[in-house]
Design a protein that fits this description.
Radius of gyration: 26 Å
Number of helices: 10
Shape: elongated
Low-confidence stretches: none
Number of strands: 0
CATH class of the largest domain: Mainly Alpha
Distance between the termini: 39 Å
Helix content: over 70%
Mean pLDDT: 84
Largest sheet: none
CATH topology of the largest domain: Chromosomal Replication Initiator Protein Dnaa, Chain: A
Length: 200
Amino acid sequence: MKKFFADTIKEIIEIEMEAPDIFRKTRVRNYVDGRMILFYILRNTFGLTLDAIGRYGNRGHDTVLYSVNNFEHLIKYDEKLSKVYDKANDQALYILTNPIIRKKQIIEDMQKLRTEYLTYSKNMEYNFNNIEEILIDKELSEEEKVDELFKVDCFMYTNMGLDSTPLERKDVSTRSRVIYRHIAKINPELGRLLVVNIDN
């Protein structure tokens, strides 16, 4: 979940509770209640873990858990809190269900993954064009050689997408067979099992 979304909910709560920066270190009631509302929404509407909420709110896991559990009881008896919660939660639900916002979030997530993927691919020592070198690398154990071959195989599959053509898929499948035959040179039983399964 994007920090921007959590910040949006936080701002609504701060305005309604008349408590600028509810993360300020204070035990003043409207700040404490504001944090409770926010933590409850982040936990129950956005589905964040207690640790993620704690990191966001600069609070410990126990504090977040206490706030979430306490809020469920408090909201039954405090009409003001209930109204603030309803307003903030409505905005949270809008964020989660609005297709334009969701599309933007998905695109941002995909761009982030692509950047991570490209960084990873640049750091890969081996690729399909030099898999022969894995077999002769004297610094790698047999298990490490198999792992490196699997990394190359996985990298090819993660590079494919829904828009991959049948020819591209066939090419990756053919290359996988080559990799599995190389694995068979190191671990014959595993290699044979992989080759048999790719044909099924």
